[in-house]
# Entry
Amino acid sequence: MSHFPGENMKTLSEKSKNSFSPINLFLKVMNVSHVNKVEIKLLLWAWFYIFLLFLSYYILRPIRDELGVAGGVRNLPWLFTGTLLAMLLVNPIFSYLVKRCSREHFIKMTYRFFSFNLLVFLVALQFSSTVQNVWIGRVFFIWVSVFNLFVVSVFWSFIVDIFNSEQGKRLFGFLAAGATMGGIAGSSLTSILVAGIGQNGLLFIAMILIECSVFASQRLANAHHCEGKKAGTVSDDEKPIGGGIFTGMAHTFHSPYLFSIALFIFFYSTTSTILYFHQASIAESVFNDRNSRTAFFANIDFWVNVFTLLFQLLLTGRVLGWLGIAFTLCALPLITTLGFAVLYGYPTIAIFVAVQVARRVSNFSLARPAREILFTSVTREDRYKTKNFIDTFVYRAGDQLASWTYAGLVAAGLSLSGMAMVAIPVSCLWLILSIWLGLKHEKLVDIPIKVNNE
# Structure
């Protein structure tokens, strides 16, 4: 089995009240107290793993956004189309690796593939002309859009393969805070260093960080395997997961539960993309300098992550534990519905920025850890293949629909207020779906093997 039992063990707070070790102090500062002794090592390596991933991604994100704007906001829908096609190509390859390789090997191969790609981009951008730079920037935009969903999806697939639903409610907020801290560090580094070392220097740093995340993932896998041996549990961690290449897609449409998770992601990505395009339009009209736009996007990311971290440290664990998955999932669609309602009446830049920040904070601090817990009640194959299909292809399919919808609405002369009116009923459907999904998870949490046989 993959999950470790957390019952009948003294918690960290009960076992070491008088201990002032750096680890205990760190967990206390991060507002994590109810941690079993077995969980500590796993939790810390998992935290370091996701911290490094988001540190590298938030170095790449503002570069991606700047290169996307440099190529023209009007061309962004085509970049989203390219991203969807790239997902169609990459998903079967990933499923093949999952089928043939052990968990540790396909994680290592996936991350090092992306790291090598960064080296190729670094060389290409260094020696390209201005015209070539625009096209390389468009390819880079697609690549980062694939990278961020893929590597994060692989991380969470690994995590829900280790921790169960009860542990997720206690611990996933802490891991989400690690992602946020990585985002804060990455945004800060980019804003500070971009003027001195340029985009190529930042790409090299990101490449090193991805390699460090590979190291952390391998240490996490080793720790999980060792704890399994100590506990005397049967583990299939070193065996290939097997199954078919298109299993993830088939299971998504076969299971009402998995299909509902896919719809949740689809609703989130469509509403996010509409807001993202409007943000890109604002940046294009205000900033003309490449480094200024990069710093602008980095600064937005920095402040979103600061507010997110405060919520994660103070509220995430408590909300998940006290109010449950259903309520936590509802927070994001509810904020989205109210946000678009306000934008319909007051479509100002200040209100837009406030709605954008509120949505992103709600997603990172509440919706993200809650929807990852949903996958603790599915089979191991679905945690990797189906989850990856939903997190990447379904997500980008929502982007694709929203990007061309936005372009069509702009061509039709609709303002932000008109777009908000269209988005309100969609957000209401999303809210209803979230209630059903959360309640369904609570029923399935003790019988995960039956999910694909509904």
Remarks:
- The first helix runs from residue 12 to 15.
- The CA atoms of residues 74 and 391 lie 26 Å apart.
- The domain at 33-453 is CATH 1.20.1250.20 (Growth Hormone; Chain: A;).
- The mean pLDDT is 79.
